[in-house]
Structure formats: C-alpha cells, structure tokens
Amino acid sequence: MNIVDQPRVYLVGRQSVNREEVDRFLADHDLTWRTDTEIGAEALCEMAGRVCYMSFGKGRKTNQEYLANIINVQHGSVLEHAVWNFIITGVSRSLTHELVRHRAGFAYSQLSQRYVDESTCDFVEPACIARDPELHAIWEQAVRQSHEAYGRLVAGLSDKFQDEPSGTLRRKLARQAARSVLPNATETKIFVSGNARAWRHFIELRANEHAEVEIRAVAVQILRLLQRESPHIFGDYTIVKLADGSEVAHTEHRKV
Questions:
Q1: Closest Cα partner for 216 from 247, 193, 194, 179?
Q2: What does the radius of gyration of the chain's CA atoms come to, in whole angstroms?
Q3: Is the CB of residue 229 less than 8 Å from the CB of residue 39?
Q4: First to last CA, the chain
C-alpha cells in the first residue's frame, strides 16, 4: 500500500492572443492599441475592460496599471476572460468533494472509479495522523482492510456478472459496486479549468487559516503557479507561513 503525503499540481493549459483578429477589430473601429504584456490572459483581460468603455489608447498605459485598477475597483467580471487549466494529483477524495463545490467559473473532469481499477491505488494520509505512530497504525489498518475488501468484492462481483458478454461492462459493474467500501483517503486525479476571478475566489476561501490543511496546500501551490503566470492579476497576494509550518495567502483586494 502506497501512502501519498504531498499533492502535485500541473499547469497544463493557458491562453494565447490572436493578434491578427485583434488588429482587424482595431482597424474596423479606427483604433490603435498595443499592450506591454506578453501574457495572453493579461492582454485579454485588459482588452475586455477597454471594450467596455472603448478606451483603447486612452487612460492607463501599462497592463499592470490597468489591471491593478480593475482589481482595486472590483470590476471582477473582466477577470473571467482569463482561463488556466490544471491537473491535480496526489489528493484524496475528501479534497475533491470540497473542490467541486466551487461551481461558478470552473470545470472538472475526475478519475472515474467505475472504469479505473483501484486495486493498486494510493492513499493520502493527513499529516496530523502520520506524525503520531499510534494514530498512524489505526489509520493504516482501517485503510488496508477497506482496500482488501475492495479487491475481494471486485473478484466476487466479476463472477456474479460473468454472463454479461461485454468485458468492459462487466468490469464497470463490479468496480462501481465495490468502490463503495473505499475510504475518502483514496488518492484521485482531477483536471480543473477555471477563470481568474474564480481562482481568486478559490484562493481566498481555501488558502486561509480556516480551510482544511490538504486543500489549503493545493490552493497555495496553485497561487504560486498563477503568480508566475500572471503577476498583474495575482501579484497582490502575499503567502505567509504559520507557526505550524503550513502556509496561507492574504490580499487587501478580496471578493473582486
């Protein structure tokens, strides 16, 4: 049985700007405009804001100035045009039960326990349990028993459905019933897409002192990646280490 103690976050998608179509729009409206950012998401958010007031070539000149004002005045709808895609692994089903509650601005695709064989799955152990030998022994025994029961159920159910001519359906019927004994500690993988406004909301709720420790660690990892990706949209957050060694994020611009 393999135990996972750290989540992993992979940034797998980002936006790019179709410069030719932007120039065609500007030409059709006798406008000239250039932004000083090379980051697609930042350029698109600035462009969206300027469309609202047809302020191309007017007012704030730099992308950083423009987006700082957007965040300061809480014109958050403009940030919904910037989108990033992540794959998150090494997390428990407990975490994804919380994660998928974030609905507006997000899309999810998660590993299916109906189709994927969990006989070799990993498990995520909370650090507060792992640090205590006695508690760890209790946790490990419970997880091991559940996992062994899953294996026996899959085998028994496969025999039960042996008259089903489709091997794929036979395996699905067995796994979807057997998964009922798997614990929330079972490791899972999830593909998550979200816009900048949604990610800010997620970070403010989950990268703070009151969030559960596992999802807080994921939120901080995502924030670090987004700060490198788009400092003009996420640069107002500060990551702070708490006395227990865990990290949280703070910003003066909440609920943008």
A1: 247
A2: 23
A3: yes
A4: 44
* One pLDDT digit (tens) per residue for the chain, 256 residues: 899 999 999 999 999 999 999 999 999 999 999 999 999 999 999 999 999 999 998 888 899 999 999 999 999 999 999 999 999 999 999 999 999 999 999 999 999 999 999 999 999 999 999 999 999 999 999 999 999 999 999 999 999 999 888 989 999 999 999 999 999 999 999 999 999 999 999 999 999 999 999 999 999 999 999 999 999 999 999 999 999 999 999 999 999 9
Alpha helices, H only, the chain: 19-28, 40-53, 63-72, 93-99, 127-130, 133-160, 167-178, 196-206, 213-229, 231-234
Structure tokens at 173: 């019927």
From 226, 243, 218, 224, select the one nearest 4 (Cα to Cα): 218
How much is the pTM?
0.95
Domain boundaries, the chain: 15-80, 131-183
Residues involved in catalysis? 206
